[in-house]
Amino acid sequence: MAYIEFKNVCLEYYTNKIKTKVLKKVNFEIEKGELVAIIGSKNAGKTTLLNILSGIVKLTSGEVLVDGLLISNLTRHKLTKFRRKNVSFSLEDDTMIKNLTAEENVELGSDLCDDPLDVNVMLKKLNLLKKKDNFYSTLSLSEQKKVTILRSLAKNVSIFLADEITKSLDSDDKNKVLKLLKSLCKKQKKTIIITSDNDDITTVADRVIKLKNGNILEVVINKKPKTTGGKKC
pTM for the full model? Predict the structure, then answer.
């Protein structure tokens, strides 16, 4: 049994009696400790997959299992407990607090768990230690993005979901972030899932899930994933 399993997952909704199918019998597996890239254009259903896995969105039909637990059948209360204990989510949209420092924003993530990662160690890994006392609003866009990522990682849970986190990062910062994520997968067996609308992270991922119009086009296993990003696989 795989660590994460999507079995015939469908999601649809109605607007003015018109049915829209967002996901169409999606099937895939993810092993514990993998770095996974979900690739697809805008409106392919990438973010929806993350929202279902985190328990934010309820699927229409099918099953989602995490470490043998059927999370798609959990009550809202139990889903909240599952998410708090097991999942951290880094969003594409900016959710940081502007009048807090970089360090204080990252600490907000560490306050959400019993065994957080060391904030200063994390800041150092992405060359932000010298900027830890700077207010978030004074940081560059790339630095702000790194703070956002670190806040989610500081929670120190088993599953890290990242929605388009490589946007706003230059090549050097992108590689630093990917190297950190790879290290967490390898050394701490974190399962990390990243969405992207381009192929720049496919060579780094252990598993690449290609999505189009709510359908899985292909699942590719990289036998020898690279440490940093590059051209498509």
Answer: 0.91
